[in-house]
Amino acid sequence: MTDLWLYMAQRISALVMAPLVLGHIAVMIYAIQGGLSAGEILGRTQGSFGWALFYGTFVVAVSIHAAIGLRTIAFEVLGLKGSALTVFAWVVFLVLFVMGAQAVYAVTAT
Amino acid sequence: MIRPHRSHPLWFAFILHRISGVALALFLPVHFWVLSLALTSPERLDGFLHWTDITAVKIAEFALVFLLAVHLCGGLRLMALEWLPWSPRQKTLAAGAVGVSVLISGTFFLQAI
Amino acid sequence: MTSTAKTLDVSVWRSNDTGGAFQAFAVPIQESQTILDVVAWIQQNEDPTLAYRFACRVGMCGSCAMMVNGKPRWTCRTHVQKVISGNKIEIAPLRNLPVIKDLATDMDPFFDKWVKAEGVFHPSKTRDDAIEQIDPTSHERTEADIGIECINCSICYAACDAVSTTEDYLGPAALNRAWTLFNDAKDSGKQTILDAVSANGGCHSCHSMGSCAEACPNELNPMASIAGLKRETAKAFFARRKS
Ligand code: SF4
Ligand code: SF4
Ligand code: FES
Predict the structure, then answer these.
(1) Is C198 within 8 Å of A11 when comparing Cβ atoms?
(2) In terms of CATH, what superfamily is C108-242?
(3) Which of A47, A61, C91, C182 lies in disulfide reach of A13, CB 3.0 to 4.6 Å?
(4) Looking at the domain assignment, is residue B2 inside a domain?
(5) CB of B29 closer than 8 Å to CB of A67
């Protein structure tokens, strides 16, 4: 059953992310006007529960999505199999999730 | 790599989706790390952000936004193909996905300069 | 296209158990010549040991498929003038299948996967029951009709990159067959089919790259059939969670 599960997790995380990506691009287009500064970004995000939720969901979904995607490529292109493949996917997921969570915390915590 | 049996629009759409996905996955850890500097050393974050004034970096950013947009549009096309029975006009849709991505990233680029 | 030469430069893959290489032949150009004609000419006039496979010569049996200038094609209905590049033609055995000798591939894996995908009829009635009435305009029937003209030629299988990378991937033809049976009112194996195509190496190994549809000589679209299976397996996935 793993193929079906991975497929479903891949599509569901993609569906979750679709509006988030659009939002993220919109914010970028808005924020880049007149250059970027740490103050400006943090002013928007710090202490905001909404942004924490937005980017928190984003990080969870992207970690799942990227781990499954890279797992497929590792299997098809690099020929990784069995437990090596499972470990690889989990490492990708954990690295992205932990680093992403840190980033979200860093820009939203007060 | 582009052998005769692969030279058709949907295969290019596939490889574009795969390459943009890998590129985004590789970029993410860097992106996250730079943002976490906000907590540990805000001055360095500002230092990084000043880089974004350089034209070369702007072009790189444009490329990233394009990759994100093209992965999004390509993914939506795929979901429409698989979950809504939308098969016949796939080539047009694939081209549309790239077109929309150029538009989105182009807007971003114009705002950035 | 408009070559003035009297012969074609043909390179043909020759192989046995120990290995292989391309061999060059000069084949006289004839009007309305097909790739199969070229291969037959070589075998009859140059080297009787050349191994290849064909039967009907009119695009019905699906046994003559080979790689022609890098693309899988039905050779009996592929005209030389349509595929020639310069004055050269390269003919090789179908991709993604083990080669027995020269241009003849072992098609067992292709047909084994056909069965593994439950691309076999699951009867619902006995000889004593009345024949089921089928409405030819129903959605299921039209869906099935689109995919039934498959001649088992394995051209899509040779074109598919998922087959090359995923050893146990069932492949476009087998899944296309499973989809037509899934939509066949007379077939009683819907759940059996869904289980077979949801297993590892099933329809979810397909990346919708469409090389199968591009290559199919009968203009079938296995990619669309596989999308149908993905849709049904996704529906079943949610339904099972709910109940
Ligand atoms: S659409 Fe699916 S079955 Fe067809 S060539 Fe691509 S991966 Fe293979
Ligand atoms: S789907 Fe088309 S290419 Fe594939 S085996 Fe059938 S006829 Fe041949
Ligand atoms: S020989 Fe029968 S299909 Fe070509």
Answers:
(1) no
(2) Alpha-helical ferredoxin (1.10.1060.10)
(3) A61
(4) no
(5) no
